Amino acid sequence: MKVKRILVSQPKPESGKSPYYDLAEKYNVKVEFRPFIKVEPLSSKEFRAQKVSIAGHTAIVFTSRIGIDCFFSLCKELRVPISDDLKYFCISESVALYLQKHINYRKRKVFFGTTNRLADMFAVIGKHDKEKFLFVLPENNNEDVMAMLEGCSFSYHTAMMYRTVSNDFAPGEPFNYDMLLFFSPQGIAALMKNFPDFQQGDIVIGCLGSTTAHAVREAGLRLDIEVPSAKYTSLSVAVDDFLKENHKRR
Predict the structure, then answer these.
(1) Do you know which SUPFAM superfamilies this protein is assigned to (predicted)?
(2) Spatial contact of 75 and 44, defined as CB atoms under 8 Å apart
(3) Axis crossing angle, helix 185-194 with helix 210-218, rounded to the nearest 10
(4) Which of 3, 108, 118, 178 has its CA 20 to 30 A from that of 239?
């Protein structure tokens, strides 16, 4: 079957630019961005139940932009003063630059990894092991961070500040795609929640990340495109190659 309609289970890019738009033009396919999941902040009551003192830390660790928004929103709601001496550690430069939405970036001490990998960020953190770190995390899907923290000698606490929930499809909302692209295990769970009788058939499923790949297979689905792999580190590049071969068929 020739792929003509692709669903990318992520929010539509605000910039209007995406490698998937380039693929749509290149192969004359329709690409739609429709997240299967959404993120919601925990309430201040839920945070207080964790008995974590934000002010008792000298460094905050962020693994996502949504974590940044939730942290500053919670500090405002709880009237927690944010010291100018507070240090910020981020998983990547793009996440670090997002801090500009909330702080005067140039006047703050901001550190980040260069490869978007947890190991790289932890290597940076290890050079500042005298700090008292607060890791801002989701309520679910933070196993990788917790595994990295095992055996760490520096002082830290974790704080759950947001959760991922299913972004349910409305009754009658169309679902007619030839390819589905997923980026988290929660996306797979949301697919099965919204469509409990889902039959894959010829629908191509691609995913990013080993945990997402595991979720695909656990759901009894066929995984056609898996990244990272020996050949691909980018899902869009893998999709490009797949479409190239797919569109050769008559």
Answers:
(1) HemD-like (SSF69618)
(2) no
(3) 30
(4) 118
**CB-count burial class (<10 Å; 0-12, 13-18, 19+) for 215:** buried
Interior/surface letters 110-145, b for 16+ CB within 10 angstroms, e for the rest: bbbbeeeebeebbeebeeeeebebbbbbbeeeeeeb
Please, are residues 215 and 189 in contact by the beta-carbon 8 Å criterion?
yes
pLDDT in tens, 219-249: 999 999 999 899 998 999 999 999 999 998 7
pTM equals 0.70
Closest of 63, 39, 38, 37 to residue 159, by C-alpha: 63
> Smallest Cα–Cα separation from 64: which of 11, 19, 22?
11
| Burial grade of 194 (CB within 10 A; 0-12, 13-18, 19 or more) | middle
Residues 45-55 have pLDDT tens digits of 999 999 999 99
Radius of gyration of the chain (CA): 20
